[in-house]
């Protein structure tokens, strides 16, 4: 009778043990991956609520610009009152929430003066003064940072100016004429001590509904307080948001978003109650 050598018997034994243990090892590895994914999901679930909390200061700081959220039709003029060189454009303004920071961004491929305007409430880069800022992205993708001048601005007009050492320098004036109309004037100076000269101005008219009034019965965006144009549902109740950026924030963490909105509403009521002029 033929007999396997001892070494062959040992090899077959090892193969048999490996075949038995391999499925168990795969199952254990799958359980470890599932546990790791669950832990990651649990960790990430805390981030949306934290992001909502961190952006409340930005929302309050940019409150005067909430009227800008929406779609706008614009007519641009190089010279005021002249159709020579004029053009028509369309832009969309929406909230963006990234890395614990909220900002308003207006952009469109059809905008001629700039590719986008971003309004931010915190200093970026950090060596700039801690004021409201406008990041202008030009059609060639280059950018400039302008800072809001408190001396030249008021509730209806916001003046954003380049830093004094920037050449060429720019001044962008945003006029909120009404809830459905606004104008953006862009000026330039070629030297640090020169005067600003008009480049062009775009007058915008809102498409669709106007912004909600805080004291009216109109539906409000649960994230920023603007006009609620988009319906979102949570636990059987319908809420409204003003743009896709706010909808993303709401869907990431509805409970935290609603809690922040209620706190903001209560703070506004208390502020109005303590102000005898209101």
Describe the structure.
This protein is α+β, with helices and mostly antiparallel strands and 278 residues long. The protein has two domains: 142 residues, Calycin beta-barrel core domain (Lipocalin, Beta Barrel); 58 residues, no CATH class. The protein is 31% helix and 31% strand.
Quick structural gist:
With 278 residues, this protein is an alpha+beta fold.
Which properties best describe this structure?
278 residues, alpha+beta, Lipocalin, 2 domains, ten-stranded antiparallel barrel, two-stranded antiparallel sheet, 12 strands
Counting DSSP E segments of at least 2 residues, the number of strands comes to 12
* CATH fold topology of the largest domain: Lipocalin
Beta-strand content: 25-35%
Proportion of helical residues = 25-40%
Could you say which structural class the secondary elements and strand pairing correspond to?
A: alpha+beta
CATH superfamily of the largest domain: Calycin beta-barrel core domain
Mean pLDDT: 79
Figure out the total of helices: 4
How would you spell out the order of helices and strands? HHEEEEEEEEEEEEHH
Shape: globular
Largest beta-sheet characterization? 10 strands, antiparallel, barrel
Low-confidence stretches: 31-46
Please give the order of strands in the largest beta sheet. Answer: 1-2-3-4-5-6-7-8-9-10
- The CATH class of the largest domain is Mainly Beta
Alpha-carbon Rg, integer:
28 Å
Q: Span from first to last CA?
A: 108 Å
């Amino acid at each position: 009778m033929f007999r396997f050598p001892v070494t062959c018997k040992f090899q077959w034994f090892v193969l048999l043990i490996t075949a038995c243990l391999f499925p168990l090892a795969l199952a254990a590895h799958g359980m470890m991956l599932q546990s790791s994914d669950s832990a990651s999901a649990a960790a990430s679930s805390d981030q949306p609520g934290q992001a909502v909390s961190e952006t409340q200061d930005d929302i309050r700081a940019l409150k005067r610009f909430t009227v800008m959220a929406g779609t706008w039709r614009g007519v641009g003029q190089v010279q005021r009152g002249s159709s020579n060189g004029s053009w028509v454009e369309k832009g969309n303004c929406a909230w963006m929430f990234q890395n614990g920071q909220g900002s308003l961004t207006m952009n469109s491929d059809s905008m001629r003066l700039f590719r986008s305007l971003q309004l931010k409430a915190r200093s970026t880069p950090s060596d700039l003064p801690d004021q409201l800022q406008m990041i202008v992205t030009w059609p060639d993708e280059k950018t400039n940072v302008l800072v809001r001048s408190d001396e030249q601005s008021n509730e209806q007009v916001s003046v954003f100016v380049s830093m004094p050492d920037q050449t060429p320098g720019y001044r962008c004036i945003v006029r909120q004429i009404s809830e459905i109309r606004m104008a953006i004037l862009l000026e330039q100076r070629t030297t640090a001590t020169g005067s600003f000269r008009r480049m062009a101005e775009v007058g915008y008219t809102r498409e669709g509904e106007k912004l909600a009034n805080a004291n009216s019965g109109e539906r409000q965006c649960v994230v920023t307080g603007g006009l609620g144009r988009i319906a979102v549902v949570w636990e059987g109740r319908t809420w409204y948001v003003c743009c896709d950026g706010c909808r993303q924030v709401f869907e990431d963490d509805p409970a935290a978003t609603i809690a922040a909105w209620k706190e903001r509403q209560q703070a506004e009521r208390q502020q109005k109650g303590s102000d005898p002029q209101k």
